[in-house]
UniProtKB/TrEMBL annotation:
GO biological process: tryptophanyl-tRNA aminoacylation
Sites where the protein binds L-tryptophan: D143
Keywords: Aminoacyl-tRNA synthetase, ATP-binding, Cytoplasm, Ligase, Nucleotide-binding, Protein biosynthesis
Full protein name: Tryptophan--tRNA ligase
Length: 344
């Protein structure tokens, strides 16, 4: 034991992040952003546009810059309130990178080697992947724990990274004998559509960086583009099942019905009670209408906000200052715990 005591971690602080790596997709929206909004009623929320994560794969500077503003506009258009909560881009607060270095020294190579996202993103040629991509989960743990946040709303794909963040927190607390200093993180995997799949392949996650634009619905798509992508989405020749058991070996049918359920605020069972037995032709029209009705107001508001980039930047800068005010004392405590000679 160090013999010193530190203030208890806050118990109701939410943190989540999103990468500015392209146009946001319906997957990002249903799996994450939509669930972030109601949490603002109950918790103190920090929502971060994770540009440091984005550069683990090469990003054109101009595209990264534009995507950062676009993600900020999308989050505000979806209902994130930057005046009552904190919205900022990650590089505005260097405390994330400092804590990530400490966590690089805590996390074990074996833990990181098991991360499926690294394996997927690095592909076959791991030798050429950036070191940043390998230690990505350590930075993600630092994003959350720089604020000692304990609730993290994410899509299903991020669950493994949060388990690793908990292993880092445990090892830190144990090795430096500060029980409970970093809190246990509770992954909040919410809603019907926790893993939205590609429109071209129901076994692959819908992703911003998929080379095929037809694989995803972007929050920037027009009504016509949405309708066309849904019309061309891969399906099979059978009518829709009437019960979820009928989705076996039909990943595309499962995906489209799950999207429909999420967009119309129904359970998958209720959606099937409504559309089960229909052919894909009719169902796709219904799905396109639901998607356009849900997404058009968001796209419109995003475009309105994007007309004033200086205002978006000012919002992010303010958020960065508020975030840093919360993380600064945590980093000072961590330096103290580690035994560094420091000035606070
Ligand atoms: N297809 C998805 N279904 C449900 N949730 C999803 N999320 C992403 N894709 C889906 C959730 O969105 C949040 C932000 O994700 P991210 O931008 O940090 O990175 P990601 O998970 O790697 O998302 P992408 O779209 O696949 O980005 P790229 O292509 O750049 O790697 C997370 O909570 C994630 O779970």
């Amino acid at each position: 034991m160090t013999g010193k005591s530190y203030p208890a971690a806050p118990t109701a602080r939410v943190f989540s992040g999103i990468q500015p790596t392209g146009h946001l997709t319906l997957g990002n929206y249903l799996g994450a952003i939509r669930n972030w909004v109601p949490l603002q009623r109950e918790f103190e929320c920090l929502y971060c546009i994770v540009d440091l994560h984005a550069i683990t794969m090469f990003q054109e500077p101009a595209a990264l810059h534009a995507a950062t503003r676009q993600v900020a506009a999308a989050l505000i258009a979806c209902g994130i309130d930057p005046t009552r909560h904190i919205l900022f881009n990650q590089s505005l607060n260097p405390d994330h990178a400092e804590l990530a270095w400490y966590f690089n020294c805590v996390a074990r190579m074996g833990w990181l080697s098991r991360m499926t996202q690294f394996k997927e993103k690095a592909g076959k040629d791991r030798e050429r992947a950036s070191a940043g991509l390998f230690v990505y989960p350590n930075l993600m743990a630092a994003d959350i724990l720089a604020y000692r946040a304990n609730r993290v709303p994410v899509g299903e794909d991020q669950k493994q990274h949060l388990e690793l963040a908990n292993s880092i927190a445990d090892k830190f607390n144990h090795d430096w004998e500060v029980p409970g200093y970093f809190p246990e993180i509770d992954p909040l995997i919410l809603g019907e559509a926790t893993r939205v799949m590609s429109l071209r392949d129901g076994t692959k996650k819908m992703s911003k960086s998929d080379p095929s634009d037809m694989s995803r619905i972007n929050l920037t798509d027009t009504a016509d583009q949405i309708a066309q992508k849904i019309r061309k989405a891969k399906t099979d020749p059978e009518p829709l099942p009437t019960e979820a058991a009928g989705f076996e070996n039909r990943p595309e049918a499962r995906n489209l019905v799950t999207i429909y359920a999420a967009l119309t605020d129904k359970s998958v069972a209720d959606a099937l009670a409504e559309v089960g037995g229909q052919g894909f032709g009719d169902f796709k029209k219904q799905l396109a209408d639901a998607a356009v009705a849900h997404l058009s107001p968001i796209t419109e508001e995003m475009n309105r906000l994007l007309a004033d980039p200086a205002e978006i930047d000012a919002t992010l800068f303010k958020g960065g200052e508020k975030a840093r005010a919360l993380s600064r004392p945590v980093l000072a405590q961590v330096r103290d715990i580690l035994g560094f000679v420091h000035s606070g």
